[in-house]
Write a structure and sequence with these properties.
CATH architecture: Orthogonal Bundle
Largest sheet: none
Number of strands: 0
CATH superfamily: Tetracycline Repressor, domain 2
Oligomer: single chain
CATH class: Mainly Alpha
Number of domains: 1
Helix content: over 70%
């Protein structure tokens, strides 16, 4: 049996990650899924409802991945490397991060969607700060920078590398940036 809602979310995510929120319409989505526009409205009455569902599904997938990373990798640099590899899939597919694509549109987004995107990034920054703080405490991450500031550095580096390497279609260059980032987190004596 066809799960139209799931198909709509999958195709809408690809459209947003490739074109941005303003760069696609329900007509584009209907064509991608092979249904009428009116059928989309049955599942998502407004584009803001669709955007909120996209962010919720994306955040849920990321939360599961972050839990797996934390449970399966014992040290800070290893966790950051695994986190960075989550971005690599976007580079390989020629797609940006969903929430970064939305964040770029800033004030043009519905207020509810801006809040959802801000919460997504706040959750990631909190996770990264905790991982980096634990790494500083166990000696796997160099001391010095405040973990919250370092978390922002990690996100900015990875989002910037994703944007650039999406343009250049260079997963290998993204891997190099990730390796440099991770190496910079390690204490000098390691």
């Amino acid at each position: 049996m066809r799960d139209t809602r799931a198909e709509l979310l999958l195709q809408a995510e690809t459209l947003v990650r490739g074109r941005g929120y303003a760069g696609f319409s329900y007509a584009d989505l209907a064509a991608a899924v092979g249904i009428r526009k009116a059928s989309i409205h049955h599942h998502f009455p407004t584009k803001a409802d669709l955007g909120a569902a996209l962010v919720e599904a994306y955040a849920t997938r990321y939360a599961a991945a972050l839990s797996e990373i934390r449970a399966g990798i014992p040290d800070g640099p290893g966790r950051i490397e695994a986190y960075g590899r989550l971005y690599l899939g976007g580079v390989e597919q020629g797609l940006g991060c969903l929430c970064a694509a939305l964040a770029i549109e800033g004030e043009a987004l519905p207020e509810r969607l801006r809040g959802d995107v801000a919460r997504f990034f706040a959750d990631h920054l909190a996770w990264l700060a905790a991982v980096l703080g634990e790494g500083q405490a166990d000696g796997s991450v160099r001391l010095g920078p405040d973990p919250a500031l370092l978390a922002r550095h990690v996100v900015a580096t990875l989002e910037g590398a994703l944007l650039m390497e999406r343009l250049f279609a260079s997963p290998e260059a993204f891997r190099g940036t990730l390796a440099l980032l991770v190496d910079g987190l390690r204490p000098a004596d390691r």
